[in-house]
Amino acid sequence: MKTLYLVGGPMGVGKTAACRALQKMAERSVFLDGDWCWDANPFTVTCETKTMVIDNICHLLDNFLRCTEYENVIFCWVMHQQEIIETILSRLHLTGCRVISVSLVCSVEELLRRIEKDIDAGMRSEDVISRSLERMPMYDKLSTIKLETTNMSPEEAARALLKMGK
Question: What angle do CA 150, 130, 113 make, to 5 degrees?
Fold first, then answer.
């Protein structure tokens, strides 16, 4: 049986780092970061671009799920609304696949520390802070497992995710 890990959370919480670590730990795994499906300059949010990114994500995830080489498909993206998760899942062929839907969460102080570290490294811009803080409460409303990562390294979060898939 395949496992599809859907890992959401606010920007800066550590989704990519945890999923990269999970990819190293999980056998026969493949990893997709939703941001890779919408890496544009300028970055614009319109009905057309939102439709496009979901199409890109679903196409790639479905190909990974159909490929016999992979047992573990790992996907991360902000996914701050239940509708986003449901739309993605509704477009995938999930026969013989277990879905682990998780939201990574942490304290506001830790989120700010992580984002500021990324800003200092030139990986994020200042505007991420307000957008990320704005979305934090939205994860409480989702039908996902909440993984509290305030005191976790990416490897510890990955081990917790892997355990959920067993």
Answer: 35
- Give the integer Cα–Cα distance in Å for 65 and 70: 7
Q: Provide the whole-model pTM.
A: 0.95
Model confidence band, residue 25 (pLDDT cutoffs 50, 70, 90): very high
Residue 71: other Cβ atoms inside 10 A: 15
**Crossing angle, helix 82-90 and helix 47-66, to 10 degrees?**
50
Residues facing 103 on adjacent strands: 8, 146
* Three-state secondary-structure class, residue 52: helix
What single-letter amino acid sits at 123?
Answer: M
3 state DSSP class of 146: strand
